Structure formats: structure tokens, C-alpha cells
Amino acid sequence: MAPAVVIVGGGAIGSAIAYFLTRDPAFHGNVTVIERDPTYRMASSALSASSIRQQFSTPINIAMSQFGVDFVREIGLAEQGYLFLASDRGVGRMQSNHAIQCEHGVDVALLDPAALRERFPWLSTDGVAMGSLGLRGEGWFDGYLLLQLFRSRALAQGVVYHHGEVTGVEIDGSRARAVRLADDSVIPLDVVINAAGPWAASVGAMLNVDLPVRARRRCVYVFTAPGSLARCPLVIDTSGVYFRPDGEGFIAGISPPEESDPDDLPLEAGRATFEEIIWPALAQRVPLFERVKLRNSWAGYYEYNVFDHNGIVGAHPTLTNAYFANGFSGHGLQHSPAVGRGITELIVHGAYRTLDLTALSFERVLRREPIVEINVI
Ligand SMILES: Cc1cc2nc3c(=O)[nH]c(=O)nc-3n(C[C@H](O)[C@H](O)[C@H](O)COP(=O)(O)OP(=O)(O)OC[C@H]3O[C@@H](n4cnc5c(N)ncnc54)[C@H](O)[C@@H]3O)c2cc1C
Q: Is 361 left (phi over 0), alpha (psi -120 to 50) or beta?
């Protein structure tokens, strides 16, 4: 039988799954991606900071980025690394992350303040006890291009992109049978995949599944400075503020503390956060940034897994033909190739064949066993 696969959401994750499925010679079905906004105006994949790192604290996230980097190199990767900065308090954690990263083949170096200043003379190391610099496989790329690459290749391989909004799922016992769209049409299916990004919980609810994924606003600020910073990596400051070069200028942002991070805030980037929080931190870390000009800003949603900040990937234990690829909490773009390949293996071969993503399965949420990823930005 040729299975009919319906993917809800055609962002980077949904399109990566569509691409990998239809390039697997053992897959003989058809794939329909249902996307309510083909312009991707609010999709996270179009609004991200488009960066990739190997510096995670869990082996599964490292392995997913190792696979992802080959993909993004294909579209052009500014391979300038990530530089995590730690104060005295953060040194122990940085060292234990370093040990895990080295064990898993990450090319990363720990630098003391003097070594940091020598490599990056523009950096102030006040309050910095140690830096962790990725030497390979980290940097930034065109995230929208990655989405479009998956999408155009999927289309060329026969995937149908259907412009419509899924508003309901018909369920019969332990199986989903069809999706219903806003125009009242019904699309029958053998397999359904939730790739609805920040809106995944509402698709989860249509499947009677309580998915701990929420839309959490993250703002990105674009600024210029009266000069450039030689060999500037993506820097994550001790304050939590990150910045990196972007074209002629830079971008920067910060994740708010949990208590001021409600769900579903409007997608507007308030200037006050830049003026009051980000700029002071930037100026303290890089003296040149005392004289920056804010040029632009945007906001997008992290599809934030409030349970443990990691992806939820794989089939639902009781709804046997429903798969989830949600909750990547700020690292979904770089992990989209690994997710696309992994979900394909599950559907086509019934098990993971390359990288085992079992650690990210839905079961851990039901068992209340979080994966602790320390390096969430
Ligand atoms: C500011 C910011 C910075 C980020 N930086 C990085 C980074 O540096 N590196 C990184 O790897 N990741 C980063 N991310 C995270 C990354 O963007 C996401 O993890 C990733 O894009 C998620 O892809 P997705 O396809 O799941 O979601 P999306 O791209 O949001 O796609 C989901 C799609 O589903 C559609 N949809 C939803 N519900 C329905 C429905 N009912 N019917 C039909 N269609 C529906 C939506 O229209 C949308 O197009 C960042 C995110 C933000 C917001």
C-alpha cells in the first residue's frame, strides 16, 4: 500500500520531513504538506537568527547539529564559531560541558581572559573568567534559504503543498483518519505529522494530545557600529545577551527570564529592551558598541517546550499513526535535517537507522523524565 502522509506545517521542519521522505527509495507513498501561510510571515523558520552550533550539553543535540552542519554548508555557512563567555560562577558548568563536547567530537577550545583578548582585541574581559570557542562547524547561514531548499526539493520530488489551515482531525480509536481544513474540505490520511512550529499545541489538541509547546516571543535587534570586529564569532555574553555580525552590521538579542516570558505575545520588538538591557550589556563587552545605531528589529516565536526545552520527536505512544516534530526551543532550524531524516526512518523503516533520536521521544514527557540541556540560548 502507498501510504498517504499529511504534514501539518510547511516550515523548515515540515519541509525537511517532506524532503527526506520522498528521497528515500523505500518510500512509495505520497506526501501532502498543508501550510496556511505560504508567505511564512509569522513562521519561526523565516524569523530566526539562523545560526548553528555544536556547543550543547547533551549528546543528542550535539549529534543533530553535526548532521545539520553539512546541510547548511551547502547553502553557505559563515563558519566563525560561537563564543560562550562565563563568569567565575559559570566556569564549572563550562568545563563540564566542554568535557561532554570533546567526548562527542566537537572542535572547541577553552580560553582564559588573556587568550580571549589576544584573539579578539576588541573584547573587554571584565567579569569574564573563561570563554568556550567553537573552532569548526559553528556559525550562521540564510535560514530562509534552508527552508526554501527543502521546500523546492520536496516539490521537485512530488510533494504537494496545499494552501489551507488544518482545523480538526478525525480520529477513530487509536488512529487519525483525516484532517479537516478551514474550508470544510477533508483530506484522508494514513500518517499525520505535527510540524506546526509555535502552534503545535493547537494541532496537538486536535489529536487529543496535550503537547507542552508554547509560542514564546524572541526579539532580534539589528544595529551598526562605527567599525567592525575582526573574526567576530556569535558571542553569548555572561549577561545572556548574544550578538553576531550580520551584513554590514550586527544582530543581538536576549531570552527573557521565565517570569516575564508569557505565551503568545504580539510579534513586536519593543525598543526599550534594546535600550535598557541589550545595549548596556553590549557596550560593557565591546567598547566600540558604546556608539551603536539601532537600525531595525523583528520578533518571532520560539516553539518553546515548557517541559524541558528540547525537541519532541517521533510517534505518539497511543495514537499510532501520529508523529510529532515540535518544541525545539530555539534550535529547530539547525536540527531540521536530523529531524527530517529521523522521522523518515521511523515511518519508512519502523526504527531509527542512522542517528537514534529515541531520547527525544514523547514517552519522556509522559514519564516526566526531562532531558536537561544547559546551553539553551
Ligand atoms: C528570534 C528567533 C531566533 C532563532 N534562532 C535560531 C537559531 O539561531 N538557530 C536555530 O537552529 N533555530 C533558531 N530559532 C528556532 C527556529 O527558528 C525554529 O526552531 C524552527 O524554525 C522551527 O521550524 P518549524 O518548521 O517547526 O516552525 P515554523 O517555521 O513556524 O513552521 C510552522 C508552520 O506551520 C504552519 N501552521 C501552523 N498551524 C497550522 C495549521 N493548523 N494548519 C496549517 N499550517 C499551520 C505555520 O503557518 C508555519 O508556517 C530561532 C527562532 C526565533 C523566533
A: beta
